[in-house]
Amino acid sequence: MFRSIRVRKIALATVVAAGSVTAACSGGAALTDGTTAAQEVTARWTTAASSGNAGTVAALYTETARTMPPGGPAVSGRSDIESYWRTDLGDGSFKTTLTPTNAIVAGDILHVQGTYAVSGKGGAPAGNGQYEQLWTRAGGQWQIHREMWRLDPEEASGDDLAEGLTASWTTAYNGGDVKTLMALYHADATLSTREEGTLMGRPAIEGFWMMDLASGKPSSKLTLEDAYLVGNLAHLEGEYEVTQPRGKPIVGHFMQLWMREGTDWRIRREMWIR
Q: How far apart are CA 130 and CA 102, in angstroms?
């Protein structure tokens, strides 16, 4: 179930190695401390993210950049990265704080690693982890070329909770109970599919599921493959299969980001990919 955590740890080491190799090949430039540069680019990233404008954040990336969100598939190219941040930033109620812990620079290559913390309304902690960024400089301007985020696996726990959240969604869906299903979503939740794009807010999501369930009596099976549970955040990921009275089964990949509010867990971000 948690095999991908190990894979991401390996990938993280690969990013570090790649950064070192790239730096060594950047015209023979010597490795130097990159603290000052890291502080400058971190301030730019924080300002852009705080603006809530996905286009402003995406402008920090090269055209051929690649980012790996925590627990999700890689996103390549500035355009797709902008779409990712538009969904992730949502209504702007969450704040991400970056703290660089190590940085090296060689010529026009800057490698930064550090920790991040996400807080919700009122400063309530929502999650934390580590990040790696490889910045390149062109025309005097630093831009992100490679990036990786991960939730802190040392704080991940609660297999039973992850299974329970998945089961609560499946039970509501298979029962055809839209009211019960929508009670699992936050008022400002977003749902994304390649076919429908991104739907924002509970009313839009309710309309989506009403149309989906009206097509017959579909039955959904979610197979949880990976989960991170940190503080008030639960990231679930796996495969789904939807069967209907007529037609072939529909299969794909799902990702859900649940947030705890008091004693209740609700979906804040959700993606379904065929």
A: 12
Residues 148, 79, single domain; the answer is: yes
3-state SS assignment for residue 41: helix
Q: Would the pTM count as exceeding 0.70?
A: no
Domain boundary among 137, 152, 167: 152
| CA Rg value for the chain | 20
- The boundaries of the domain holding residue 27 are 3-152
Distance CA 48, CA 39 (A): 14
217 lies in the same domain as 116 = no
Tokens (6 digits) for 148: 């990786």
Same domain (yes/no): 114, 216: no
Question: Residue 156: which pLDDT band, with cuts at 50, 70 and 90?
Answer: low
**Which three-class secondary structure state does DSSP give residue 31?**
coil
Number of domains making up the chain: 2
Beta strands in the chain (DSSP E): 32-33, 61-68, 75-76, 95-106, 109-119, 125-138, 141-151, 185-193, 197-200, 219-230, 233-243, 250-261, 264-273
Say yes or no to pLDDT of 9 above 60: no
75-76/61-68 β-pairing: antiparallel
Domain final position from 152, 181, 213:
152
Nearest-angstrom CA–CA distance, 234 and 161? 9
User: Can you read off the two tokens belonging to residue 1?
Assistant: 């179930």
Same domain, 188 and 135: no
SS (H, E, C) 113-176: EEEEEEECHHHCEEEEEEEEEEEEEECCEEEEEEEEEEECHHHCCCHHHHHHHHHHHHHHHHCC
Q: 266: domain CATH number? A: 3.10.450.50
The tokens describing 145, both together, are 């070329």
Q: According to the model, what pLDDT value does residue 154 have?
A: 59
